Amino acid sequence: MADLFSPLTLAHGPALKNRFMLAPLTNLQSHPDGTLSDDEFKWLTLRAKGGFGLTMTCAAHVQAVGQGFPGQLGIFGDQHVAGLTRLAAEIKRHHSVSAVQLHHAGNRSPKDLVGTPVSASDDPETGARGLSLSEVEQLVEDFVAAAVRAEHAGFDGVEIHGAHGYVLAQFLSPEINKREDRYGGSVANRARIVNEIIDGVRARTRADFQVGLRLSPERFGLKLADIVETAGAILAAGKIDYLDMSLWDVFKEPVEEAFKGRSLMSYFTELPRGQVRLGVAGKVTSPAIAAQMLKNGADYVLIGRAAILHHDFVQRARDAAFTPIALPVTAEYLANEGLGPAFVKYMSTWPGFVEAA
Fold first, then answer.
1. Which of 166, 183, 242, 267 is catalytic?
2. For the chain: N or C, fewer Cβ within 10 A?
């Protein structure tokens, strides 16, 4: 267990005081214009106070048309900076490293929020329109501009959301991305947008600004071999500080038959990573599982559901036998753990999570 509470240095910026990151969690609590609400502020800063080495926001959209859900935090305009500045300062006050997750939902944007959604290519299934070449270039610019806003707000860094079938994952998917320009075709071309965003953030932020990347290797038209190749190339380039692999379940085997017989996680822990740190997410619900992930080759773990249930999960994790409270829990319990009404309502849509009223 001692390894979980050892510091983790990164290539840029401050070290994490332990190996726990707060996972970037959808919570629907921000104002309709994307500005920070008091409920969102309370939820996040309570986790920083609870001991997380790095406290990450929910996915924050970098374009208005990239909104993925109601009540999403925004970072696409200067109107968002004041709230983000307040948030960064309070996370820092609790000695937690701070990060904004940068996001664009692409074809997963609800039409009632954005009108016609956009994607890597025309997508008849969702009605999304393929981005023109100049619009792809603007998307890169808007990710980079959002990182600059995060820097100005006082955050230690950003995480680029390339997972879960959102717009960057749509570029990575050979099923969705049918482009015939430099952003389509080969694995390297489909990953070009991610690399251009990384390069842009590095070029336009301070030397000690941290850059992370989230990838997922399955579902949404993604191919495991492609994501392994992409992750390997990005790790080898050494431009990011950490790679966050969202695996749905850290113990699972791949869904693709050709890759079964070993854990999905192992395809990424075996990649040479240099100074880049590798983390995993997916049902890491106890300190025992977290410790096992470090033994299995991860540098850190991301905590989601367990952090919803216990704002002080990290402090409680010093007891190796600790397990989170049994589900379902009451709405009152979640409110006492710092969730606002919109977040509690959202959690009630998760089967078996919240007791029926």
1. 166
2. C
